């Protein structure tokens, strides 16, 4: 081979471009610009079956139930707790979704008690359910 260095350099460029494309599809800005693609990717990972009788969500490889959704049109992935009485949103995601922090409260989680804030979620969508 006459130009092995050129071949190695071109291989690195191709790998960089492929990795950059894949990583950009995982970024929050890509999810905001292409929310339907984001939701379809997450639904493909954890299929959701919608029938006349209801919705079936398959568990992931760790046994958790999750799905794609949006809060105030901000796409995010949800872990779904079928026994929960409220919705918990990490502070950073709450800010990005434009939620206002209300009265501070103590919430009970599987990891113990945590400080949290009450809020109102004007728009909540999980899959095709609003």
UniProtKB/TrEMBL annotation:
Domain of life: Bacteria
SUPFAM superfamilies: Acid proteases
One of the Pfam families matching this protein, by short name: gag-asp_proteas
NCBIfam families xrefs: clan_AA_DTGA
Protein's name in the database: TIGR02281 family clan AA aspartic protease
Originating species: Methyloprofundus sedimenti
